[in-house]
Amino acid sequence: MKPVIIIAMVFVLMIGLIVPSIFAEPVLYDENLVLQEYARDIGWGYTTMTFVGDDILLLQKLGAVSLIRDGIIQEEPVLEIDVNPIRESGLLGVTSVGATVYLYFTEVDSDGEQLGNRIYKYDWNGEKLVNPVLLKELPSNEYHNSGAMVTGLDDQVYAVVGDTGKYGPLQNKLLEELYPPETKDYMDTSVILRVDPEGPYLAMGIRNSFGLAIDPFTGNLWATESGDDDFDEINLIPDKFNSGWNKIMGPATESEIDSLPGYEDYIYGDPKFSWEKVVTPVGINFGNFKETRNYDNSLFVGDCNNGHLYKFELNQNRDGFVFSNPDLQDNLVNENDSTDEIILGTGFRCITDIERGPDGFLYLVSHGERVIYRILPIEAAAENSLETNVLTSESLETESEITDSENTGGGCLIATATYGSEMASEVQQLRELRDNSLLQTQSGTSFMNIFNDFYYSFSPIIADYERENSVFKEMVKIVITPMITSLSILNYVDMDSEVEVLGYGISMIILNLGMYLGVPAVVIIGIRKMTRVRLN
C-alpha cells in the first residue's frame, strides 16, 4: 500500500475515533404503528423539509434544496444557495403555503462574508424554486440562529429566531444593563416572528429552538426549546408569550418570575414539559392519521442527544399533558425519573424534523442519516408497504434488549459523551468536517466506512464509562481537545479534491504527532538529561 494512502487512512481513523457515526437501527415500541424507510440514499447533511403537494422539498444545511418525488431523491437540486454552513448556520428552515415556499438561511455574499439570516419566499413551478422575494433581514451568529418555520391553519407563516448570542430586552434584560446601549442591535432575536403576513412578535425570551408545530385541531402553536446546561422545554405558545430566557429555563420559581423586567405586555408561562438533564428536543408534530383516531391526542417529539422519539398524550383541553407515571406528573423529568411511558422509539440518532404529509403519515428527518423515515398506522401498512424496509422490533432486536442497551447509554459515542450533546460546538465542528469534506471524496467515504466498523467495536463502552465516571470523562476531554482544536484549522481551507484532502490530512497528522508524541518526547529527553547531569 502506498505511504500516502496509509497516512490518509490514519487521518481518517483520527476523525473516526471521535466523530459520531450511526446509532443502532431505529425501532418503535408501539405495535399499532409501523416504521418505514420512505426515501433512501438521500446523502448527508439534510435537516428539515416541507411538502408541496405530494412532493417533499428537503433542505441540506450546506445550501441545497432537493426534491423527493415518490420516495426517490432527484439528482439535481431545485435550488442552490450560498450560505455559511458553520456550526448552527446554513440553510435552516422551510415551510410552504400552496405553491409558495419560504426559506430561512444564513446568507453570504460573493466573497463568502456573512450577511445575516434572511427569509425569502419563492414560487414553486413543479421543478424549480423561482422568483425569490426578500421578506426579512435578521441578526445572525454562528450559533443560536434557530430557523424552524411553520404555517398556521390560517396560512400565517411563523419563524423562530434564537438569541444569536445577543442579550437585550427580548432576552429579559434591563435596558440599563445593555452594552452597547443601542437596543436596535438586539431586536428580532429570541423571538417567534409573524413572517407573512408580517405582524408583532408572537413570543419572546426564547433561547434557541429547532422545532415548531401547529395543533391540527385547535391551531395552537407549540415549540421545542433547547436549554443551556440544564432544562430543555416543550412550550405552548399563546400570543404575547414570554418564555423567560435568559432569566429562566425550566419551571420557574417565584423569585425568578419576579426577576423578569417585563417587556411590553408579554407574559411569562411555564413550559408544558421539561427535561432537567438536556436531551436537545428538536422535531415536533401532532398525530392526525386518517385510518385511526387513536393518535389524535398525541404529540410526537424527537431529540438529538439520544435518538429518542417521544409520544406525549394531550389533556382534554389540549393545553398540557397527562401521565400515568407519578414521576412525570409534575411535567418534569428529573435525572432518575423513568421515561418509559413517553419513549415511543429509539435509534433515530438526531431527529431534526417531523412533518405530517398530505397522506396523514409522519415523516422524520434524522440528521446525519441517509434516510427519510415515515410512521403510519398498522391499518395503512399493507397498502403503503412500498419497496422499502419496514422496521419493527421483531425485525431488529427484542424490545427488552433495546431498552437494556438504551438504559446503559450504548447508542451515544465518545465526542457526544465528552461534550454532553450532539449539538455541542466541538461535535458540530467534527461532523461538518466529516460531512462537508471527507465524505465529499471517494477515498474519504471508503475509509470512513471501514473505520466505522472498527470504531463501534469499542466506542459505546468508552461513552458509557464517561457517563459513570466524571474523572474519566475529564481525562478523555483533555486527550481529545488538542486534536479537535487543531482540526478546526481545516474549516478555513478549501478541501474540494482528493489531493487537497490527502495533503491537509497529512499536515494534520504531522501536527498531531508533534503534539501527542513529539512534545512529550522532548520533555522526557530533557528530564533524562537533567537527571544525568545531576547524577554526574
Descriptive terms for the model:
single chain; Neuraminidase; 2 domains; five-stranded antiparallel β-sheet; 31 strands; 25% helix; disordered N terminus
Structural features, described:
The chain is 25% helix and 28% strand. The protein is built from ten helices and 31 strands. With 536 residues, the chain is an alpha+beta fold. The longest helix has 38 residues, at 498-535. It folds into two domains: 3-15 and 413-523, no CATH class; 22-405, Neuraminidase. Helix 1 (3-18) crosses helix 10 and helix 9 (470-487) packs across helix 10 (498-535).
Biggest sheet descriptor: 6 strands, antiparallel
CATH fold-level assignment of the largest domain: Neuraminidase
Total domain units: 2
What count of helical segments does DSSP give? 10
Please, what is the CATH homologous superfamily of the largest domain? Answer: TolB, C-terminal domain
Outline type: globular
Going by helix content, strand content and strand pairing, the class is alpha+beta
Distance between the termini: 48 Å
Q: What is the percentage of strand-forming residues?
A: 25-35%
Helix content: 10-25%
Question: What is the average per-residue confidence, as pLDDT, rounded to a whole number?
Answer: 81
